Amino acid sequence: MAFNTIHVRSRVSGRIEEILFTAGEEVRAGQPLFRIDDRRLRAQLAQARAQEALDQATLEQRRRELSRVRELAPAQLVSRQAVDELEAKTESAVQQVSFDRATIAAAASSLSDTLVRSPLSGRVGVKKIDIGNVVLDDEERELVTINQIHPIRVEFSVRADQLPDIRKQKGKGAMKVEVLDATSSTTLAVGHLSTIDNGINPATGMIRLDAEFENVDEQLWPGQFVKVRLHLAPLHDVPTVPVSSLLRGDAGWEVLRVSGKGIVERLRVSRGACTASRCAVARGLSVGDRIITSGMHEVTDGDVVRIVGTDVAGTDRP
Question: Which residue intervals define the domain Multidrug resistance protein MdtA-like alpha-helical hairpin in the entry (predicted)?
Fold first, then answer.
């Protein structure tokens, strides 16, 4: 998935006059994408500036009048009420000029928004509007989408029971993540684990992880389906078993161990990291234990079986 995805929309109303990009190209932050007809907003800005000039002249006049009456006040040639009224009018003129300047700033900002710019650097998509169409500032109409793919993120999920090991290793430093092609034979990109989600999906028992890749050669693309390999620390002297030998019991994972006399024993185990074919067993088994890998539902605790082939808990790295 893209590191950031921006849905570009217009902040002003007007007719699209020009489209300034080519679909699929790389754009820079601040690069112009669309030009919207700005004649109405230019007129509004000119009107706001003219009003500010008019009100500024009124303010200067009020200040001169106030200065004169204050000079006459000590000689009681003007009433205190007249002074107070003129002070109030002068303050009102000050506030009017401040209002005019705010109006000018808003009009200038709207005029600037007629040139729609890219908010970030990324890959621009296909335009979703043509020249001549009118856009409104209060509608959700999207003009174009920009995906930031340098860097890029890959989202994947792991079982919740793997979370403690992942968190422990991530706390010690960056965790290597590989992205592989569909055959798992070619590495497309190498990055690091960037995010562990804040909750486990109760429906699947999985937790989402995000990995980050520089993607300089653009081997990864938003929406692309890939295979991910998360590198955990090597396991030493930990038994591993075929995935097919693990049973889901009421209290967790179980295996069927066969004693030296051929007696079946159901054991609860703690499953660790897995590959496509084998899983580590953190607790419950020892290296060299014999287990049943097929036909598990045909036997139960205490049954006596005849061993026709051997599969033992090994120490292959999962």
Answer: 44-111
